[in-house]
Here is the input.
Amino acid sequence: MQYGLLVMGAPYSSPAPHSALRFAHAVLARGHKIAGVFFYHDGVHNASSLMAPPQDELNLTEAWAELNQQHAVQLDVCIAAALRRGLMSESEAQRHGKQAFNVVPPFELTGLGQLLELQQRTDRLITFA
Amino acid sequence: MILHILTKAPDSSASTQMQQAIGDQDAVLLIEEAVTAALDPSWATWQQCKARIFLLSEDLTARGLASIAEDNELPTLEMDGFVSLTEQYEKTVTWY
Amino acid sequence: MATSDALLVIIRHAPHGSNWLREGLDAALVAAAFGQPVHLLFMGQGIMALLNEQGSGAPGQKATLPTIDMLEMYDIDKLWVAEGALHAMHLSADSLVEGISLIADQEIPGLLQQHAKILNF
Here is the structure.
């Protein structure tokens, strides 16, 4: 089966990203595919490359990136939700005249349409919030 | 048939709203804060969804509630069982 | 009642308390803009989004009513309101915007079953 995940909880504020990651690994272990993860609402903070938790805590940004590298899971971040919370890619930073950026590949800023498309093309969309 | 996933405690508004939305054939999975429902076997949803409601065991264990859930004879699932539920139920709705 | 291929967006959060309402309505509008039929179900505090006398929030905080007014332009004309929650909040349908439909609590499970896709905000 094809799965899609919608993550709307912020890292280290909500248990949602941890639950989502553990669920993702269990989905893959059962032989399914994960087409993509869509980060929305406070979940967009999962994409911050400036995240620097203490060493004994899981670095969520890296954990998501690993999921992308090992299992080709697409990581889409809602651009509107991200920009209003101060998350931006290099090109968005340039466009908005900002001096820094914190969203880098494999995370991609994209429109909300991508969430609906993910829901359309997968067999299951599971929300973590 | 819908799998309802509750992430908030039984006394939350998310929980109340979920109770209003559960259909006769639906299942319920309690994760994160919702596993505190293990403390109260008289919680209405246990009866409402008998045999189709589960606690996520790793969230119980993390909170020190695993043996209480066992003593209260409440059904638990591993993460693998969570995935298996999502295979069986075509739709899932998360209440948070 | 609802058609099976429609997306049901459930709104459970009030204006101004968080961004859940705004971002939930955004998802509904984008789905509609992509040509998907969209129905809305307002439960609990989400009903506050429909109060016809609401204004804008703190300085710079957008009002919700203009977005609610926009729904019709996007062909989102099914706005279900959970009747039990409305009464529990001591509100009457008169204080809400026009064009809403009340749904009895016992019909809510059926409404969810009828929709192939659901997003819960």
